Amino acid sequence: MSTKRNLYKDFEHPFAQYVRIVGKGKNGARSLTYEEAYNAFSMILKNEVLDVQLGAFLMLLRVKEESVDELAGFVQATRDQLNFEPMQIDLDWSSYAGKRKHYPWFLLAALTLAKNGYKVVMHGASGHTMNRVYTEQVLQYLGYPVCQNQQDVAAQIEQHNFAYLPLSVISPVLSDLIDLRNVMGLRSPVHTLARLINPFNAPATMQAIFHPAYRSSHQQAAFQLGYLNSAVIKGEGGEFERNPDAKTLICGIQNGELYEHELPKLTDNRSPAEEELDLAVFKQVWEGQQRHEYGETAATETMGIALYTMGMAKTFEEAMNTAQTLWKNRF
User: Fold this and answer.
1) Angstrom distance (rounded) from CA 155 to CA 149
2) Straight-line distance from the first to the last Cα atom of the chain, in angstroms, rounded to the nearest whole number
3) Of 87, 152, 177, 267, which has the fewest Cβ atoms less than 10 A away?
4) Are strands 257-263 and 205-209 parallel, antiparallel or unpaired?
5) 15-64 and 91-329 share one CATH topology?
6) Cα 68–Cα 57–Cα 190 angle in degrees, nearest 5
C-alpha cells in the first residue's frame, strides 16, 4: 500500500472537476465541452496533473470514446503550445500505428510524391506497441534521417521534399503518454489526437484510424479545427494506407466542404500477410529490383488519395491515373 501523503484531503485539486465530468457514473457522466477539453488538456501538457488523475482521465475517455468537441479541444490545446513556425509544406501525413502484417507501403507513396516535388512532413511515434515495424526505423533503413528540430525539417524539405519528425520532438509530454500503452494495456486518446496536430500548418492533412467509428470524429474535428483539406480512412494496420483487399471509405474535407467517397475493393481474395517484414525486400521494391503486386497497388492507390486531398486532381480516377504515372517514373 502506498504511503504517499495525500495533499488534497482538505481541498480539491483543480483537475478533479474534469475527471468527475467524464467519470460520474452511467447517468451522471457527460462529454467535456470544447472549452473544458481545451483547459483540461492544457493542464496535462503543463504537467499540472497528478499521475493518478491522468491515468483515470485517459482510461475513462478511452471507455467513453472522445467526442468531436473533446478531440478538437485536445488538439488545439496541443497546437497552442507548440514552438514551431509555419513552413511551406504541401501535405501533413501522420504515422502512429506501425505495421505488423504488411510492409509500410504508404511510405513509398509519400517518398514518390516527394520525388515529384510535393513537400511532405510525416510525424509519428515508434515502439509503443510490441511486435510492429515503425516508420522511424524503416526510414532510417532507407537512409532518411529522423529530424530533431525545425531546422532539421527545413533542411530535409530543401534536400528531399520529405521530412520525418517524431512526436518526442513535437511534444515530449504526448510522447510520454503514448509510451504508456504497455502500462495501461490500452491505447489512450493521445493516439487519436496526435494524428491531427499538423505542426507546420500544412494546407492538406491525412490521418488513418483503427476503428471505423473514429472516421467521422476525425473528419468533424479537422473541420472544427479549420482544416480546409483533409482525408481520413481506416488504413491497413492503422496507417494511412489503402488496403486493396477492401473497400475504402474516405471521410474528407475538400476546399472547406465535407465529403464522403468510397473506393471499391480491388482484389478477389484477401492477400496473404508477409511471413516476415524483411526490409531488404521492401527496399528492392522501392528501387525497382523486385515487383510486389499488392504493395505497388497499395502504394499507388494511397498516393492517389494524397493527390486528391492536395487538390492536384478533380476526380479520384484522375488522381489514381496520375499516381500510377508517378510511380512508374519514380527513378
Assistant:
1) 10
2) 63
3) 267
4) unpaired
5) no
6) 55
C-alpha 24/C-alpha 4 separation (Å) is 25
Phi, psi of 149 (to 5 degrees): -170, 180
94 contacts 196 by C-beta, under 8 angstroms: yes
C-alpha cell at 128: 509503443
Tell me the three cell numbers of residue 153: 525539417
**The domain 15-64: what is its CATH number?**
1.20.970.10
Residue 270 pLDDT greater than 80, yes or no = yes
Side-chain half-sphere exposure of 7, counting CA atoms within 13 A: 3
pLDDT in tens, 298-311: 999 999 999 999 99
The strand ranges marked E within the chain are 91-95, 120-124, 162-166, 205-209, 230-234, 248-254, 257-263
The residue length of the chain stands at 331
Q: What is the pTM of this model?
A: 0.94
CATH of 91-329, one of 3.30.450.20, 3.40.1030.10, 3.30.479.30, 1.10.10.410: 3.40.1030.10
Residue closest to 296 by CA, chosen among 267, 317, 255, 269: 267
Q: What is the mean pLDDT of residues 237-258?
A: 97
**205-209, strands of its sheet edge to edge:** 162-166, 120-124, 91-95, 205-209, 230-234, 248-254, 257-263
Closest CA to 165 of 198, 128, 118: 198
The residues, ordered by sequence, that sit 6+ positions from 52 with a Cβ below 8 Å of its Cβ are none
Asked whether residue 10 carries a pLDDT value surpassing 70, the answer given is yes
Three-state DSSP at 270 gives coil
